[in-house]
Amino acid sequence: MTHAAAFPAPVVLWSKPEEERAGKALLVLLHGYGANEQDLLSLADVLPQDFVVASLRAPLVSGPGFTWFPLTASIDYSLDAVKDAATYVEDWLDAVRQNHPSVTLLGFSMGMALATTLLRRRPADYAAVVGLSGFAVDAAGDPSFRDSELDGTVPLFWGRDQQDPVISPDKVEFTMGWVRKHVKLTKVLYTGMWHGINQQEIGHVSEFLTHGVLSK
Description:
Layout: E1 12-14, E2 25-30, E3 51-56, E4 60-62, E5 65-67, H1 79-96, E6 103-108, H2 110-121, E7 128-132, E8 155-161, H3 169-182, E9 184-190, H4 199-214
Parallel strand pairs: 2-3, 2-6, 6-7, 7-8, 8-9
Antiparallel strand pairs: 1-3, 4-5
Helix pairs in contact: 1-2
């Protein structure tokens, strides 16, 4: 098992130069398996400009890209590895969050698994979560997942295509049960998007962020 302490220093791309970041709501982008910090950064141009956007690179090398935690051939994972990845992101966030009035997480695919894990470990730390074509991990009663403190008030957007060929039905079923119990859910289904993101979804995410975070 790779512990967070052994991970490389974080690699982060920002939407704004350092002198323009302080005091703005922070939106953290968490990419999917095998991608990198550049993969989602273009979203910064089409999401509300009142955010400063930070796109973080996952710490583990996976082919030409990176991964937050290893996956097996059956798209399965170790909960300990998920927790190591969460600690890695938390350590980076702890160093920057004092500059921002709020922190919102946006994760694609595996990035949604990490975003929801972060929320579940520190429920009071995040204004909202956006999950795109992803899932929440089954933490099987792990005490570091503080689900009992999530009382349905944190806004969460979950967008997906029912024909998504990547996220297996058991993961969708678990995530459905989890979101219904623990967050203030906005769930939208898309067609013809498969395992991806489309313009209609980005429009919905923009509305969600404007009303769920910026107008608070």
